[in-house]
Amino acid sequence: xxxxxxxxxxxxxxxxxxxxxxxKASNSTSCERGSGVNAPVQATSSLLRPASRLxxxxxxxxxxxxxxxxxxxRQGRDVIVLGTGEPDFDxxxxxxxxxxxxxxxxxxxxxxxxxxxxxxxxxxxxxxRDNGLDFAQDEITxxxxxxxxxxxxMMATLEPGDEVIIPTPYWVTYADIVLVMGGKPxxxxxxxxxxxRLTADDLAQVITPSTRWVMLNSPSNPxxxxxxxxxxxxxxxxxxxxxxVWLMVDDIYEHIVYDDFxxxxxxxxxxxxxxxxxxxxxxxxxYAMTGxxxxxxxxPAELIRAMAVVQSQSTSCPSSISQAAAMAALxxxxxxxRERCRSFQARRDFAVxxxxxxxxxxxxxxxxxxxxxxxxxGLIGRTTPxxxxxxxxxxFAQYLLRRVGVAVVPGSAxxxxxxxxxxxxxxxxxxxxxxxxIAHATRELSH
Length: 447
Ligand code: PMP
Fold this sequence. Notes:
By secondary structure, the protein is of the alpha/beta class. It folds into 2 domains: about 60-90 and about 335-445, Alpha-Beta Complex (Aspartate Aminotransferase, domain 1); about 105-335, 3-Layer(aba) Sandwich (Aspartate Aminotransferase, domain 2). Helix content is about 35%, strand content about 15%. It has 13 helices and 17 strands. It has helices spanning about 60-75, 95-105, 115-130, 145-155, 175-180, 200-205, 230-240, 265-270, 300-310, 320-330, 335-355, 395-405, 430-445; strands spanning about 15, 20, 40, 60, 80, 140-145, 165-170, 185-190, 210-215, 245-250, 275-280, 295-300, 360-365, 370-375, 405, 410, 420-425. Helix 11 runs parallel beside helix 13 (about 430-445). The radius of gyration is 22 Å and the shape is globular. Bound molecules: 4'-deoxy-4'-aminopyridoxal-5'-phosphate (PMP). 4'-deoxy-4'-aminopyridoxal-5'-phosphate (PMP) binds near residues 221, 252, 284 and 290.
């Protein structure tokens, strides 16, 4: 894989002498995190001395590209941003109505620590209806987004040096949360030939006595790849043989799946693993509620209790009004979600076809989410009209932004190069124009 090693531009404390000390299994590239992924947190005045744990993490390249695009826009440039991971739809009206009603009824106070009983009941019903999972009330937790769920789970369980297996390409937050807890992300590259999915063999090779968690995400951000029951089965068999290893599954894109793909979640496939699976979900993506900040999970009561302790000393509880809104979303009609999914599918089909027509670019058809993860290996080594060599996917992303005002995120930011991610959760006309511009900019590259 021509992606260059990436530890260089981050101040990761576990890197010495240019070598990354994340555990590196024979078939894992623990260093491969994308050049310049994050801006290091540095003291700006002599009074501030940031805690050393912060030097491991920073602002993701996605936000950096979005910021740069915003800056170019401010300068009057015409920029199309395909970087953001949120639906362009608005929150459904019945959900907003529920929030208004909740406010009027006085639901403006602290709530139960990790979710109101009413919302937990709606979540239990959702798990039963959509996933065939029976959770008791004390096996459910609610937080300010799925991101806080992950944060709580890792803070509640990781000891320094514990290893967490993360297939790449991956949502950058996974590794950063592990790092900030003093854990060790073990990044396992998942080849495009395997549909960007982790295989049981890859997994078996990287499990050690220090492995605490495996993190899986289906459909995936950034690849859009999803695991069917057939893909999960051998992975779960490996986990059955390693009782010290827990599984975190991030199902946040559950409802955004295409064609005849049948979404399934591991706790439903292998009930005997239920005692060590945390099934994470949320309302951000399915119901276009990113700003409301509600995520939830089902898992063993002991873990859920420990996560509530963490939450009790950070945010106390999720927003009372947002919880009422999330309840309306989960209990409400499903057809609006299906209708929006059809719209995403049309955009996916358009984007994949357009990208595959570009010489030097290849794009796999994703099963879900609203991203394409296109390969640009064929463009590496080419030269821009102003005489710069494209040496990496980051170079290509920078070139697209400078030359034609299209913001995409390089695959190296997600731990797998050379690729670039576009989010097609944008208007069809913008998407069309962006693909036209990418094709144009690519034609201008010389061999
Ligand atoms: N998991 C994945 C894979 C995501 O892409 C995101 C959002 N980008 C989240 C979790 C976080 O979602 P939330 O808004 O619920 O924190």
